[in-house]
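chain below, 798 aa
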Amino acid sequence: MEVAVTVIRNETKQLNKTDRFALQWAEFVIKNRLKTIFFAITVFFVLAAGLMQIQASHNYRVFFSDKNPDLLTFEKFEETYTKNDNFLFVVKPKSGTIDQPFVAQAIEALTARAWMVPFAIRVDSITNFQHTYAIDDDLIVEDLIEDAANLSQAEIAKRVDIALKEPLLAGSLVALDRGASGINVTLQYPGLSESELPEAIHFARALVSEFEQEYPDLKIALTGISALNAAFFEATINDAETLYGPMFLVLVLITWLIIRNFSGVISTVLVITFATIAAMGFAGWAGITISPFSGSAPVVILTLAIVDSIHILITMAQRMRVGDDKIAAIKESMRVNFLAVSITSLTTVIGFLALNFSDAPPFNALGNIAAFGITAAWFYSLTFLPALLAILPFSVQTYSDKSRGPLQEAINKLAEFVIARARATLVFVGLIFIGLACAIPTINLNDQWVEYFDDRVEFRGDAKFAINHLTGLYILEYSVPAGAPGAISEPKYLQDLDDFAIWLREYAKVRHVYSYTDIIKRLSKNMNADDPAYYHIPGERELAAQYLLLYELSLPYGLDLNDRIDIDKSSTRVSVTLDEITTGETRQFLKDIDAWWDSRSPGNEVYGTGATYLFSFISERNIQDMIGGNIVAVILISIVMMIALRSFSFGLLSLIPNIAPLIMTFGVWALLVGEVGMAAATVSATSLGIIVDNTVHILTKYQRAREELVLSIEDAIRYTFDTVGAAVVANALILAFGFSVLMFSSFKITGDMGTLTALAILIALVVDLLLLPALLMLRAQSKTKGASYANTEKTQTI
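prediction:
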């Protein structure tokens, strides 16, 4: 063993500038250990104070930037008509139909109470629907169901029959099978406080509880855009409650299993805690809004922050096992790992900062928070960690001479396998790569926002209930301009609009269409003694305008047509409710609509919008944006590798084991799952920054073996696997586990991102242990064998 110690210490004499700086830094930190710890803790508390400033998002629009053209179109639409925020109460008797008197009474009462929902500006239901009919020359406009308590079941059934014949109600607020009915509450938030939505959702849910208690034979579900917005916030809270704690405890356990030293575990736990809280504090100080996706940042940082500490502790333990005292082991570990830890931190930061190319602010937020957290972890790993280790007692477990631990023995055998079969390994991995790459085009992009949440989020169950029993929730809004003020009464415009509505209703996935022409045709019939023969578009503009004026004058407060018709009567709104439909099908439907209008009215200014429209293009838009981000990340990471390794060829070589796993990951996903949402836009950039870490550690150790120890290619690979192989495997497993925890998120985008990243990390581990050494073997031939590397004499590892 004395010979082994001498050999190792002789290695440290050949120091480059980076090594000398690392040793000087380690000596400075250890010499000023108490001051360093005090400074690190002070920085932590300053950053942690920002936690008080954190705000969470209550709006699905957080996924769209202020410059997003689709969002700008949607805001233009809302300025023309009215805000699109709403609650939809779905009322269904547990047995029977809505013809039953108690159901009608409940709907009427709930309709009246719904006006009390904070920020409500309109309430629509079957009971207050403005039913029109004629008596002689008079147009009568009244509630369809009024004073339900004094109506018989036959009278109620008659009114339900009327509702089912009314295009504006059937399939929207009245189920076609008479099994359920809806109450739609339109809201307009002032936007002055973050408490507005929580106040409204709390009141609405209290109404549901109150009426279900008063009418035990009813099931009432609450959905709509405002319920969707609340679900995003609730998913964030749910993840914080269910993921952070267990994740933290498991990471502590894994650290113990790897380090087997109490002081090492305590030091590592403090580093990852400081880094995570500091990053979230930074988010508060920077005014970053937390959403379900960016809310996963603590799990991401906890996972990534542990890696630097693990590398430093493993090397420190290795040095102590061959005879170094604790202080000498800390210094040597800092020297050996300083460059690799710095490079891996920088490349990971680059990967996450690339998310700023995305159009979705939550992706930007996750990237910036994680990048700061990784930087904080690097800072604490190179300051607080060695300073604390210098104070705390630290002992190591030494294996017997014949045992180097099962993990290290397996890694050394793998090294011999790759060395002996480099070309075969390269061909084998290459064929798998080609096969998986060919599967990628089969992936479908799908962002159905109801599917974003699992059953732990109340909105998911209520949304499914509404879809199954009443109406669809995927709504497309269209604004159809008439060309001039008052022109919506032009017969040609009305006929085009009516033909559009008829065409839409023939589409298989359409459940309901709300068009102004259904109102004008009903008025035409009413004004002609309710003769069904007059249920058509009026033939004269003046006549249509008169019908509209008479109808508007008869409407009660809050139930006017301002939400359907522009104030100067130059355009109208068409709402298209769709069944459960993939975003791919939605995009095709939108193309069909554009083609219909282009053939009917070339040069028209008809445009579509709405939440469904926005989410239909979110994946495509973000993937397109992230192409630029990925290119920049790849270029910057390659430059960093070239500079750090002082080798242009190494920098280029590193691209292969870093890009190949990403392509293979999506190939595996295509075969196993087949579809992905906007999480796909983030995985390539973030995974690239993460999986490059192991490549860095392998190449830096390989380069050290070739340049400092003057080992042959074969022996350099043996040295690399022996000194860093266990740490590479351990870190990959930690990272994969950490990101796989996100699979249990109640928010699908976060879950998909975690699963894809974990898969990429595991595939990258295989590539780094098989493909990378094979590439190194084929890169150059050994010019000199040098001294043979015997791992049993050099060092011991876990």
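Residues 642 and 651 are 4 Å apart (CA to CA). The two ends are 18 Å apart (CA to CA).
thats it, cya
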